[in-house]
Amino acid sequence: MIFLTVGTQLGFDRLVQAIDKICKECPDVLVFGQIGPGKYTPKYFKYKRSLSLAEYSNYFDEANIVISHAGMGTIINCLVNNKPLILVPRLAEYNEHRNDHQLATIKKFSNVSMFFIPSDLEGDLKQYLTSHKFNYELNDVSPYAPVEMLDKLQDILTND
Amino acid sequence: MKKIKLLAVTSKGGHSVQLSRLFPAFNGMDITVLSTSNENPFPKEAITYKYIDDCNKDQIINTMKCFFQICKIVFKEKPAVIISTGAAPGVLAFIAGKIIGSKLVWIDSIANANSLSLSGKIANKMTSYCYTQWPDLVRDKGPKYIGSVI
Protein backbone atom coordinates (compact mmCIF):
# COMPACT_ATOMS: atom_id res chain seq x y z
CA MET A 1 0.00 0.00 0.00
CA ILE A 2 1.12 3.52 -0.78
CA PHE A 3 0.32 6.16 1.83
CA LEU A 4 -0.18 9.67 0.49
CA THR A 5 -0.09 12.50 3.02
CA VAL A 6 -0.13 16.22 2.36
CA GLY A 7 -0.69 17.29 5.98
CA THR A 8 -4.01 18.63 7.20
CA GLN A 9 -3.60 22.39 6.90
CA LEU A 10 -3.52 22.93 3.12
CA GLY A 11 -4.79 21.02 0.11
CA PHE A 12 -2.36 19.87 -2.59
CA ASP A 13 -4.65 19.25 -5.59
CA ARG A 14 -1.86 19.11 -8.18
CA LEU A 15 -0.35 16.04 -6.47
CA VAL A 16 -3.68 14.44 -5.47
CA GLN A 17 -5.00 14.77 -9.03
CA ALA A 18 -1.79 13.37 -10.55
CA ILE A 19 -2.01 10.32 -8.27
CA ASP A 20 -5.71 9.84 -9.03
CA LYS A 21 -4.87 9.77 -12.76
CA ILE A 22 -2.16 7.17 -12.19
CA CYS A 23 -4.56 5.06 -10.06
CA LYS A 24 -7.11 5.20 -12.89
CA GLU A 25 -4.55 4.00 -15.43
CA CYS A 26 -2.98 1.40 -13.13
CA PRO A 27 -5.63 -0.36 -10.99
CA ASP A 28 -2.86 -2.35 -9.24
CA VAL A 29 -1.55 0.78 -7.56
CA LEU A 30 -3.19 0.86 -4.12
CA VAL A 31 -3.16 4.26 -2.48
CA PHE A 32 -4.69 5.63 0.71
CA GLY A 33 -4.52 9.39 1.10
CA GLN A 34 -4.75 12.03 3.80
CA ILE A 35 -5.46 14.85 1.38
CA GLY A 36 -6.27 17.91 3.52
CA PRO A 37 -8.79 20.61 2.59
CA GLY A 38 -8.27 20.56 -1.22
CA LYS A 39 -10.96 21.12 -3.86
CA TYR A 40 -10.28 18.01 -5.95
CA THR A 41 -12.12 14.79 -5.02
CA PRO A 42 -10.21 11.58 -5.86
CA LYS A 43 -12.23 8.90 -7.65
CA TYR A 44 -9.70 6.10 -7.95
CA PHE A 45 -8.21 5.83 -4.47
CA LYS A 46 -9.53 5.90 -0.90
CA TYR A 47 -8.90 8.97 1.17
CA LYS A 48 -9.77 11.03 4.22
CA ARG A 49 -9.26 14.77 4.48
CA SER A 50 -7.79 14.47 7.97
CA LEU A 51 -6.71 11.41 9.99
CA SER A 52 -6.56 10.93 13.76
CA LEU A 53 -3.10 10.19 15.20
CA ALA A 54 -3.99 6.49 15.54
CA GLU A 55 -5.28 6.26 11.95
CA TYR A 56 -2.21 8.08 10.68
CA SER A 57 0.16 5.75 12.44
CA ASN A 58 -1.74 2.64 11.19
CA TYR A 59 -1.56 3.73 7.55
CA PHE A 60 2.04 4.87 7.98
CA ASP A 61 3.10 1.52 9.46
CA GLU A 62 1.28 -0.47 6.79
CA ALA A 63 2.70 1.47 3.85
CA ASN A 64 5.54 0.13 1.72
CA ILE A 65 6.22 3.64 0.59
CA VAL A 66 5.00 7.08 1.56
CA ILE A 67 4.37 9.94 -0.85
CA SER A 68 4.15 13.41 0.56
CA HIS A 69 4.66 17.14 0.27
CA ALA A 70 8.09 18.20 1.53
CA GLY A 71 6.82 18.76 5.10
CA MET A 72 9.23 18.18 7.98
CA GLY A 73 6.82 16.02 10.01
CA THR A 74 6.63 13.30 7.34
CA ILE A 75 10.32 13.66 6.44
CA ILE A 76 11.42 13.12 10.06
CA ASN A 77 8.95 10.25 10.63
CA CYS A 78 10.23 8.49 7.50
CA LEU A 79 13.89 8.99 8.50
CA VAL A 80 13.34 7.63 12.01
CA ASN A 81 11.31 4.64 10.76
CA ASN A 82 13.37 3.93 7.61
CA LYS A 83 10.34 4.29 5.37
CA PRO A 84 11.07 5.16 1.72
CA LEU A 85 9.50 8.48 0.78
CA ILE A 86 8.57 10.13 -2.52
CA LEU A 87 8.75 13.90 -2.06
CA VAL A 88 6.89 16.52 -4.10
CA PRO A 89 7.45 20.13 -2.99
CA ARG A 90 4.59 22.61 -2.68
CA LEU A 91 5.20 25.58 -4.96
CA ALA A 92 4.23 29.18 -4.33
CA GLU A 93 3.46 29.73 -8.04
CA TYR A 94 0.42 27.41 -7.70
CA ASN A 95 -0.54 28.93 -4.31
CA GLU A 96 0.37 25.66 -2.62
CA HIS A 97 2.29 27.45 0.15
CA ARG A 98 3.31 30.96 1.20
CA ASN A 99 6.78 30.59 -0.30
CA ASP A 100 9.12 28.04 -1.87
CA HIS A 101 10.81 26.81 1.32
CA GLN A 102 9.82 23.24 0.39
CA LEU A 103 12.12 23.48 -2.65
CA ALA A 104 14.96 24.38 -0.28
CA THR A 105 14.03 21.42 1.93
CA ILE A 106 14.17 19.03 -1.04
CA LYS A 107 17.57 20.37 -2.02
CA LYS A 108 18.95 19.92 1.51
CA PHE A 109 17.71 16.33 1.73
CA SER A 110 18.50 15.32 -1.85
CA ASN A 111 21.45 13.16 -0.75
CA VAL A 112 19.32 10.85 1.43
CA SER A 113 19.06 7.63 -0.58
CA MET A 114 15.66 6.79 0.98
CA PHE A 115 14.07 9.89 -0.53
CA PHE A 116 12.86 9.80 -4.13
CA ILE A 117 12.15 13.03 -5.97
CA PRO A 118 10.19 12.63 -9.25
CA SER A 119 11.20 15.02 -12.03
CA ASP A 120 7.57 15.35 -13.16
CA LEU A 121 4.10 14.32 -11.96
CA GLU A 122 3.35 12.08 -14.94
CA GLY A 123 5.77 9.49 -16.33
CA ASP A 124 8.38 9.75 -13.60
CA LEU A 125 5.90 9.70 -10.71
CA LYS A 126 4.05 6.80 -12.36
CA GLN A 127 7.27 4.85 -12.57
CA TYR A 128 7.85 5.31 -8.83
CA LEU A 129 4.28 4.32 -7.93
CA THR A 130 4.28 1.19 -10.08
CA SER A 131 7.77 0.12 -9.05
CA HIS A 132 7.90 -2.51 -6.33
CA LYS A 133 11.58 -2.26 -5.64
CA PHE A 134 13.19 0.64 -3.91
CA ASN A 135 16.90 0.42 -3.27
CA TYR A 136 18.14 2.58 -0.46
CA GLU A 137 20.52 2.60 2.47
CA LEU A 138 19.06 2.34 5.97
CA ASN A 139 19.52 5.32 8.25
CA ASP A 140 20.23 5.26 11.93
CA VAL A 141 18.23 8.26 13.14
CA SER A 142 17.28 8.37 16.83
CA PRO A 143 13.81 9.59 17.89
CA TYR A 144 15.58 12.49 19.61
CA ALA A 145 17.87 15.31 18.53
CA PRO A 146 21.66 14.67 18.77
CA VAL A 147 22.98 14.64 22.36
CA GLU A 148 25.33 17.62 21.76
CA MET A 149 22.37 19.80 20.76
CA LEU A 150 20.23 18.59 23.66
CA ASP A 151 23.06 19.33 26.15
CA LYS A 152 23.52 22.86 24.80
CA LEU A 153 19.78 23.46 24.87
CA GLN A 154 19.48 22.19 28.43
CA ASP A 155 22.24 24.63 29.49
CA ILE A 156 20.39 27.49 27.80
CA LEU A 157 17.11 26.54 29.51
CA THR A 158 18.59 26.09 33.00
CA ASN A 159 21.29 28.79 33.26
CA ASP A 160 20.49 32.38 34.16
CA MET B 1 15.66 22.27 44.20
CA LYS B 2 12.50 23.69 42.73
CA LYS B 3 11.57 22.41 39.29
CA ILE B 4 11.90 24.88 36.42
CA LYS B 5 8.50 25.73 34.94
CA LEU B 6 8.73 25.31 31.18
CA LEU B 7 6.02 26.17 28.66
CA ALA B 8 6.49 24.71 25.16
CA VAL B 9 4.33 26.14 22.36
CA THR B 10 3.96 24.61 18.90
CA SER B 11 1.74 24.37 15.85
CA LYS B 12 0.69 20.85 14.87
CA GLY B 13 2.53 18.81 12.24
CA GLY B 14 6.22 19.33 11.52
CA HIS B 15 6.71 21.96 14.24
CA SER B 16 5.37 19.55 16.83
CA VAL B 17 7.45 16.60 15.54
CA GLN B 18 10.56 18.79 15.95
CA LEU B 19 9.57 19.83 19.48
CA SER B 20 9.17 16.19 20.52
CA ARG B 21 12.80 15.56 19.47
CA LEU B 22 13.93 18.14 22.07
CA PHE B 23 12.20 16.51 25.05
CA PRO B 24 15.33 15.01 26.70
CA ALA B 25 16.58 18.61 27.18
CA PHE B 26 13.50 19.29 29.37
CA ASN B 27 14.40 16.51 31.80
CA GLY B 28 13.41 17.25 35.42
CA MET B 29 11.34 20.32 34.47
CA ASP B 30 7.68 20.99 35.08
CA ILE B 31 6.49 20.85 31.44
CA THR B 32 3.30 22.24 29.93
CA VAL B 33 2.80 21.93 26.16
CA LEU B 34 0.38 24.12 24.19
CA SER B 35 -0.34 22.89 20.69
CA THR B 36 -2.91 23.35 17.93
CA SER B 37 -3.45 19.58 17.62
CA ASN B 38 -6.73 18.46 19.22
CA GLU B 39 -5.03 15.17 20.12
CA ASN B 40 -1.95 15.07 22.36
CA PRO B 41 0.97 13.62 20.36
CA PHE B 42 3.44 13.84 23.29
CA PRO B 43 4.20 11.37 26.12
CA LYS B 44 1.17 11.81 28.36
CA GLU B 45 2.77 10.93 31.70
CA ALA B 46 5.52 13.59 31.40
CA ILE B 47 3.56 16.71 30.59
CA THR B 48 0.43 18.80 31.01
CA TYR B 49 -1.14 19.21 27.58
CA LYS B 50 -3.40 22.07 26.49
CA TYR B 51 -5.10 22.64 23.15
CA ILE B 52 -5.03 26.11 21.59
CA ASP B 53 -6.75 27.33 18.41
CA ASP B 54 -4.65 27.39 15.26
CA CYS B 55 -3.87 30.76 13.71
CA ASN B 56 -1.63 32.56 11.26
CA LYS B 57 -0.98 36.18 10.35
CA ASP B 58 -3.82 36.20 7.77
CA GLN B 59 -6.51 35.16 10.28
CA ILE B 60 -7.11 38.11 12.60
CA ILE B 61 -10.01 36.67 14.61
CA ASN B 62 -8.33 33.29 15.14
CA THR B 63 -5.13 35.07 16.10
CA MET B 64 -6.97 37.13 18.74
CA LYS B 65 -8.66 33.99 20.08
CA CYS B 66 -5.38 32.10 20.19
CA PHE B 67 -3.61 35.06 21.88
CA PHE B 68 -6.33 35.26 24.53
CA GLN B 69 -6.04 31.51 25.28
CA ILE B 70 -2.25 31.76 25.50
CA CYS B 71 -2.30 34.89 27.73
CA LYS B 72 -4.64 33.21 30.16
CA ILE B 73 -2.27 30.26 30.54
CA VAL B 74 0.98 32.29 30.60
CA PHE B 75 -0.29 34.80 33.19
CA LYS B 76 -1.62 32.00 35.41
CA GLU B 77 1.29 29.56 35.13
CA LYS B 78 4.08 32.19 35.01
CA PRO B 79 6.61 29.89 33.28
CA ALA B 80 10.31 30.67 33.86
CA VAL B 81 11.02 29.57 30.30
CA ILE B 82 8.92 29.56 27.12
CA ILE B 83 10.28 27.52 24.21
CA SER B 84 8.78 27.35 20.72
CA THR B 85 9.56 25.55 17.47
CA GLY B 86 7.01 27.78 15.66
CA ALA B 87 4.97 29.00 14.14
CA ALA B 88 2.57 31.95 14.85
CA PRO B 89 1.30 30.65 18.25
CA GLY B 90 4.92 30.68 19.47
CA VAL B 91 5.23 34.39 18.68
CA LEU B 92 1.99 35.07 20.57
CA ALA B 93 3.33 33.17 23.58
CA PHE B 94 6.55 35.22 23.37
CA ILE B 95 4.54 38.47 23.56
CA ALA B 96 2.74 37.22 26.68
CA GLY B 97 6.01 35.87 28.14
CA LYS B 98 7.83 39.14 27.52
CA ILE B 99 5.27 40.91 29.75
CA ILE B 100 5.92 38.62 32.74
CA GLY B 101 9.67 38.30 32.09
CA SER B 102 9.96 34.64 31.02
CA LYS B 103 13.14 33.51 29.27
CA LEU B 104 12.18 33.12 25.60
CA VAL B 105 13.84 30.38 23.51
CA TRP B 106 13.05 30.00 19.79
CA ILE B 107 14.16 27.05 17.67
CA ASP B 108 13.33 27.92 14.07
CA SER B 109 11.99 25.00 12.00
CA ILE B 110 14.55 22.99 10.02
CA ALA B 111 12.22 23.59 7.03
CA ASN B 112 13.60 27.13 6.82
CA ALA B 113 16.88 26.31 5.13
CA ASN B 114 17.28 29.50 3.07
CA SER B 115 16.02 32.17 5.45
CA LEU B 116 14.56 32.44 8.93
CA SER B 117 10.76 32.01 9.04
CA LEU B 118 8.62 35.13 9.42
CA SER B 119 7.80 34.06 13.00
CA GLY B 120 11.51 33.42 13.59
CA LYS B 121 12.40 36.94 12.44
CA ILE B 122 9.95 38.42 14.96
CA ALA B 123 11.22 36.08 17.69
CA ASN B 124 14.80 37.13 16.93
CA LYS B 125 13.87 40.73 17.77
CA MET B 126 12.35 39.65 21.09
CA THR B 127 15.09 37.42 22.50
CA SER B 128 18.80 36.69 22.28
CA TYR B 129 17.95 32.97 22.56
CA CYS B 130 16.87 32.55 18.94
CA TYR B 131 18.35 29.59 17.09
CA THR B 132 18.37 28.49 13.45
CA GLN B 133 19.02 24.86 12.49
CA TRP B 134 21.22 25.90 9.55
CA PRO B 135 24.74 27.31 10.22
CA ASP B 136 24.58 29.44 7.02
CA LEU B 137 21.77 31.50 8.53
CA VAL B 138 23.72 32.61 11.64
CA ARG B 139 24.06 36.42 11.91
CA ASP B 140 25.77 38.73 14.45
CA LYS B 141 22.38 40.02 15.62
CA GLY B 142 21.01 36.46 15.76
CA PRO B 143 19.90 33.83 15.16
CA LYS B 144 22.58 31.59 16.70
CA TYR B 145 23.21 27.92 16.04
CA ILE B 146 23.45 25.03 18.52
CA GLY B 147 22.73 22.13 16.14
CA SER B 148 19.72 20.68 14.35
CA VAL B 149 17.05 18.23 15.50
CA ILE B 150 18.13 15.62 12.92
Briefly characterize the structure.
The complex is a heterodimer of chains A (160) and B (150). Chain A has 160 residues and is α/β, with parallel strands linked by helices.
Q: Which architecture of chain A would the CATH scheme give at its second level?
A: 3-Layer(aba) Sandwich
How many strand units of chain A?
6
Number of helices of chain A: 6
Question: What is the radius of gyration of chain A?
Answer: 17 Å
CATH architecture of chain B: 3-Layer(aba) Sandwich
**What's the alpha carbon Rg of chain B, rounded to whole Å?**
14 Å
CATH class of chain B: Alpha Beta
Output mean pLDDT of chain A. 95
State the fourth-level CATH superfamily of chain A.
Glycogen Phosphorylase B
Going across the biggest sheet of chain A, name each strand in turn.
3-2-1-4-5-6
Overview features:
heterodimer; A: 160 residues; alpha/beta; six-stranded parallel β-sheet; 6 helices; B: 150 residues; seven-stranded parallel β-sheet; 31% helix; globular
